[in-house]
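Researcher: Sequence recovery benchmark, item below. Answer with residues only.
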């Protein structure tokens, strides 16, 4: 069953690779559009600096930003669920935060924090806390009020209602939010590194662009995509292990 389920994705993936290869051969200019084989070859040639220095730098930014975004997003979602006043005050601000162009703020973060990890972390957090906050809050709102009222009639406290009813109901929403946040955090880290850094895959890609090395530009991007897919797969695995009742429905 799993093989059959993955077959359409595999067919589409190879079809896109063939289109990419044909387009690269048609353009015949590797500095503009390298072929997949050229990118893989360049990735192997650059494996030393990429895996020893730049990949760890980017993953550090991703890890810190995801941790901050999860804590911040959950805190805001719980606060808005508990207090209608907080919801009215915070929800518009959460939405407005996503209208801020991160590419404009990234240079400012570099001015404030220099080439430290925090200038990139702030860019990634700005992009990732939003889906966690909104999705988890929607999970809280999905809990039916009559079920909450029923538990109150049996004498359940607010803490018991949260742990026994709301927490299990929100878990699927939480994992969905994290799966959305993972690629966004990687994009945010790459943007921050692209605009101001001394290490990281985004910085390395920009450096290769200045050298007109098309395959060198695509190599760290390919690595970023693989990391995003692997991290999302890990989150999906944790979801299947923890949210077991969802698979039984």
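Model:
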């Amino acid at each position: 069953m799993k093989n059959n389920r993955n077959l359409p994705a595999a067919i589409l993936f190879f079809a896109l690779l063939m289109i990419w290869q044909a387009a690269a051969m048609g353009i015949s200019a590797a500095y503009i559009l390298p072929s997949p084989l050229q990118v893989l070859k360049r990735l192997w040639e650059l494996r030393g600096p990429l895996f020893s220095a730049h990949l760890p730098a980017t993953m550090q930014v991703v890890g810190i930003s995801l941790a901050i975004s999860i804590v911040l997003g959950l805190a805001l979602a719980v606060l808005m669920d508990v207090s209608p006043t907080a919801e009215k005050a915070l929800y518009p601000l959460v939405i407005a935060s996503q209208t801020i162009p991160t590419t404009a703020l990234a240079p400012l973060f570099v001015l404030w924090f220099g080439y430290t990890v925090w200038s990139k972390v702030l860019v990634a957090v700005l992009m990732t806390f939003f889906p966690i906050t909104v999705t988890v809050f929607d999970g809280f709102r999905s809990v039916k009020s009559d079920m909450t009222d029923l538990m109150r009639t049996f004498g359940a406290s607010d803490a018991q209602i949260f742990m026994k009813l709301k927490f299990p109901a929100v878990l699927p929403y939480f994992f969905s939010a994290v799966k959305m946040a993972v690629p966004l955090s990687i994009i945010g880290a790459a943007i921050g590194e692209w605009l101001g850094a001394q290490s990281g895959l985004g910085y390395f890609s920009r450096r290769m662009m200045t050298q007109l090395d098309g395959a060198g530009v695509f190599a760290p991007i390919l690595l970023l995509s693989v990391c995003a897919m692997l991290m999302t797969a890990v989150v999906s695995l944790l979801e299947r292990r923890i949210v077991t009742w969802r698979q039984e429905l």
